[in-house]
Each structure stands twice: as C-alpha cells, then as structure tokens.
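Archive transcription. Copying these from loose printouts into the bound notebook so they stop getting lost. Printout 1 of 2:
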Amino acid sequence: MLTFFLPLLASAVLTLLVLKSAGVHSHLSTDGDLSGPQKFHARPVPRIGGVGMYAALWLMVAWAHFRGEAGIARFGTGILLCGVPAFAFGLIEDLTKRVSPPVRLLATSVSAALGVAFLSAAITRTDIPGLDLLVSTGLGALLATIFAVAGVANAVNIVDGFNGLSTMCVSLMLMAIGYVAYEVHDRELLFWSVAGVGAILGFFVWNFPAGLIFLGDGGAYFLGFFLAELGIVLISRYEQVSPLFPLMVCIYPVFETVFSIYRRKFIRSVPPGLPDGIHLHSLIYRRVMRWASGQTDARHLTRRNSMTAPYLWALCTLSLIPALLFWDSSRMLAACIVLFGFVYVVIYWRIVRFRTPRWLAPHRRRRLFGGRSRRRLTARPTK
C-alpha cells in the first residue's frame, strides 16, 4: 500500500509547493499563451507539474533502499537517470520556450539509448514478419527501441491537451503493465508501475478538474519515456508476454500521433510537425462539448475543459481491455490494434463532419426532449 500512497502524498505535497511558490517563478514557469491552436485554458497556469512527480519517484528509490530492496532501488535509479535527458530538455522548454520539438525528440532518443545500454530495455522481437529480422541485430534493435520510445514520449505529449487527459491515460496504462508484471511475478516492474501511478495521481488532484497546474513538456516526455521503458523491459524479460502488448497498451496516443501525421501530410498538405487544433480531443472539446460555447467566463471554460477528458479516458480503456485479456497472444492483439484504428477513424470522421453519434452527445438528446416538452406545454391552453 505504501508503494502507492507514499509517492501519491509526496507528489501532491511537492506539486502544492510549486503552486504556492508560483509568485517567485511565474515569469518562467507560467503558460500565459491563451491563443494558440492547442491552448484551451482560461487563465495563465504553471506548466512544471512534472517536477513533483519526478522528485516523488526519487523518494521511492530512497524508500526501496531503506527497505533493503536493492534490486528495486537499482532499477528505479537506472530508469530515472536514463530519463534525465527527456525530462531536462522538456523542462527547459517549459521554462524558456526555446527548445524545438526536434531537440526534445533527440533528448528522448538519448534517454532511450541509455535505457538500452543500462537497463537492457531493447526491442528484440515484434512478432511482425520482416521487422523481426531487423531487430534480431544489435543495431536494428537499438534503432527500433529509440524509435518506439521517442514515439511514445511524443505521443503522450500530443494528447496532453486538457486537464487530466494524459495523466489519467498514462495511469491506466501503467496499471495494465503492473497487472501483467504481477501475472509473471516481476516485483520490480510491479513496484515501479504502482509507484508511477501514485506519483501521477498526486499531481492529478491539482490538475483535474480545476487545472491549477499543467504537466508541461518535461512531465509529458518523462511519463512517455517511463511508460515505454517499463513496457519494453517487460517483453524483453518474458517471452510469454506478446511484444505487441506494450503497443496495445499505448495504442490511443500512438494512433493519435500516426493519424495526425497522415492527416497533416496527405490531407491538409502541411508539415507533419505543424500544430493544429483538430486532434480528436480538440474536436470533442469544440463540437461534442459545444453546448458550453456560449459561456466565456474562466470558471465555465475550465469546467468545459475538464469535461472533455473523460471521453478520451473511455477510449483509452477500450484499448486496455483487450490488452489485459490477450497479453500473451500476438494474433489477438494484432486484430484488436486494427479494430481500434478502425473505431478511432470512424469516430473522428463522424465528429469532423458534424455527425457526432448521439451516444457521444447525450446533452443533445436532453436539449431536444426539453425543447419539445416546452412547446407542448405552451401549445396547451391553461384553464
């Protein structure tokens, strides 16, 4: 229990300290840009929430040392040190706004390479014809691992658009990895999966629903790195775990990224790295939640922001259910990955064409029903 509650308490307290000291560092840490295509907050907010989580995980390293669990402490020290480039360059961007996306991706790639060297976190099998031949070589495994880790880190950063969105999704994904680690009796991976969830939820209480602090690039890149590393270590240690299991776990942010690249490059004919405001989560905010568009005060916009995330939590959960059911079957996971992509595209195109499914917009049914009721009442004369 302490593996969960200790990092939760530490992260919550440290994040609160960041909030209380905002007056000192707000000129560096505050996101005051309210006009960008991916900006949905109503007031300037600190964006260095990753600091509390990262520090809380270091506290868990000390806790593991104190309990005499040298293996767990050693693994935690390794993953946190390997994650320094990803976290540091993201944090520098949060403070200076001067670190370009390619540089941040390069830093995450360095973290991934360090993970291969010091954690043996390398993708050496994929169960995908042709790709297995590539990763059977040392260089191929290194390149595939760097590509996968950097991709997941960038994907988590992309879906970090609304209060509680990316953090709750990553928490659910870590729970899935922790479950399989429990099934294969790996105490190290189970410990760090649970500790990661605790550290994230300690930040979450200040981020959702009020949006008092943001995760920031430092937090998002580190969480993506942390998630990817645990998944890769899991499949590298246990052959009974399908190599497609980590991909199934992360398929929501990964497919969001791949689809966004396709949409920008081949449909809109713009650079794939150009930010835009038509990600799935952005469309849900603007169109599924459009019933709130008439209100512009900060309180109402924050509420609308936070009410967007649960839609994507549900989508994320849809990918985790088959991941937990078929974690040892590559065939079933491959079929579920294809099915998820199909469902995602159908939902996206329905919303983008203003044909939002009724089950996604229950408020519309309530409004229509209420409108008909009022018309009937006014049409009937009163005695």
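Printout 2 of 2:
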Amino acid sequence: MKTICLTGGIASGKSTASVFFAEKGAHVIDADKLGHRVYDVGTPGYDKVIAAFGNDIVGEDKQINRRALGGKVFGKPEELKRLTDIVWPEIRQMAEEEISAFGEDNPDGVAILEAAVLLEAGWEDIGDEVWVVVVDRETAIERAMSRDSVDRAAIESRIDAQLSNEERIARADVVIENNDDQPALIRKLEEAWANIA
C-alpha cells in the first residue's frame, strides 16, 4: 500500500485533487472531517477540550459549541496552540488507524490523507510522500473571494496565517501547480497519479 500526504493552501485546489484521486480508487481521508469527530461527545478529545477551556463551551445538547470555543482561541496564539495540542494528536491517531485498517484490506491500495495543516502539525511522516498543490497568491485571493463571498482583506489575512508556497514546496516530494484552469489541473493530477498507480 502507498500513503500520500496531500496539502495546500487556501483555494489551491487540494479538494479538487482529493475528489480526483477518490474517483481513481484512492481511499481519501479528510483531516477536517476527523477534526470534527474530535469534538464528539464521549471521545477523549471532547473531555480534554472541556477540561482545558471550561464547561461554558458546552451547549444544552452537551455538544461543544464551536463558536464559543472559537471565541476563546481566536486571535490568541497561546490559546490556539493549547487547542491544537489537544486536537492535532487526536486527528493523527484517527488518521493512522484508518490508514492501517484500509491497508489491511487493500495491500495494493492508495490512501491519501488530505490536511491543510499537514506540515504545521508535523504529519508528513504518516505517508510515503508529501504532495503539495500550490497556487499563486493573487489567483488564490481571486478564487477564494468568489468561492466564499469574503472580502479581500479577510482572504489575505488567512493566506498570511498559513505557510508560504516556498515553505510547502521545500518540504514536498511532488508539487502540483494550479494557476490555470481546471482541465490543466486535471492533466497534472493524471500525471501524478500515473506515477504511483
């Protein structure tokens, strides 16, 4: 089995890449979805987050109120690190368990872990290779503004909070550049897939 760690910045096209690889038969694991499961009632992550941030983040339905939690960490780097120090190891464990289970049933399969924070969290060692989808800053801003209906300043601040393309490329085994249209991206994904399939 081969495991690919896939990452990229905002509006880079990594979600399009994930859909493409899933259609090719890869087992795609979305770290964002695993992240939501960390907050599920009864999980170790749920208990740890409440212990760290207080019972006032729990709603009447016993669910963690993500907005209340966000208010405690937004714009506060130390508090955000406290949260990611809880959440990231939980996501990693779930991802590794899912990859392992998939590998047992599909020894010749391809698993892809898609994670925006892959490099920040230090997860690149989960896979055999790190694939990075990159896009020029201006293209990313335009795409994100039209996709999310958010103003330029908000998108720029999100981009500035991420690793730069140069930092990602320096740590990548495969770089997929996505500054053109979607058919051009699909051609590049076809090439990348052909090298592992």
